[in-house]
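One such shown below:
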Amino acid sequence: MKNKIMLITYPDSFGKNLKELKYAVDTYFKREIRSIHILPFYPSSGDRGFAPMDYRKVDPQFGGWDDIEKLAQDYELMFDFMINHLSRRSPEFLDFIEKHEDSPYADMFLRFRKFWPGGEPTQEQVDKLNKRKPCEEIRFQDGTTEKIWCTFDEEQMDLNLDSETAWDYVERMLRFLMDHGLSQLRLDAFAFATKKVDTDCFFLEPQIWEMMDRIQGILDEKKLPMLPEIHDHYSVQMKLAEHGFPVYDFVLPVMVLHTLYSEDAGRLKHWLRICPRNQQTTLDTHDGLGTVDCKDLLSEEELNAVIRQTEAYGANFKWDYSGDSTGKKVVYQINCSYYSAVGEKDQDYLLARAIQFFTPGIPQVYYMGLLAGENDYELMERTSYDRNISRHDYTLEEIERLSGKPVVKRLCHMMQFRNEYPAFDGEMELKDTRDSILGVIWRQGSWKAELRADLKKHDFEIFYLDRLGNERRLDLEREFDGLGEAAGI
């Protein structure tokens, strides 16, 4: 993937469908957005696309493959692949329900009675599981019932990756997507896909590496990268990077909030020194802001301070009942738009994005973040779903209006600079400053870009060298003239 900014969006949230998505990006954000992560656009029976029924189809409400391929002509595209599961309404699972043991897909799904010795787990085995919802009782047309493993939801039936039937399906679907505009694959929920009796069935080694290498081997046929998605202790991302995979910087969202709230960059500087370089950075995504990712990088007191402040700004939380040794529930993710998480203060929001753009990695910007979107309490309450607080669906009229907001225009000018100035393909260095000051420099050849931030004042400036070696200050009130004489690019 090119080291340019990626937009994350649902197929019907930035405009009502894929045609409107392309129109909106083409019209208002052509210089700012160079690639797009289109969240699942396949027909799905739940979890807003993450219970896919058929990877070979585009849900008609979003458009068709011609719309995907038109987007692919102008933007690199990332698609999701749910390696852990498939919809219970998929043709394969419906065939299994109809024919049971006579179905060619009988071995494709993870069946309790074939997985567990004796057909059921013991209580001790259940207690070891890193689980959400362990199984679903399925009634077959022959009148029998059987438990099928479903880690996440009753609509998401887990695949049996010890079965060549499942791998045949995976390979066929991946090759189809590779022929239809895929530039990078996002491997969703992969850490749950490796399962073995008497383990927690989460990120099992060496099975996890064997599985990922097999998938990457398919993608290598067209030299396409894979981005594995996992929320866990930051050391897991480091391990993925050591194995040569790009990773998500899921530490950054909460780390930046801590930096802004505390007016202290000490923890952030430590992370910038050690974080993987082959990563994709986020501040906001369709999921919440992960807290587990920052464990041991922030103290419990510091993390709780971030949680309390986001709650004051209107956030709600996803809780984890298994993440604490005492058994008490802990906050797993913070549900809040990033603009609201900084108190809807324009300067703090722009500073947060400046830190992201100067962090090693390819920046991803969520569609609500692109428009400095506020928490959508009406949608959350109407749908009775907490995560919808940060999943507003924008019409073209809203996008046109919000693209003219001063904070959005200044953000766009900074995004233009991040995309077009060559220094970001070089190396990063941190200036030795007191912790209320953050100085980050990027250099490549004669090009140099520098972020100078005063956290006590909640202010920052960006400087760069033009082709004559003169230092210039980036003017966020004006479009970046990176293709003109000033920068000489």
Remarks:
- The first strand starts at residue 6 and ends at 9.
- The first helix runs from residue 18 to 28.
- The CA atoms of residues 481 and 487 lie 7 Å apart.
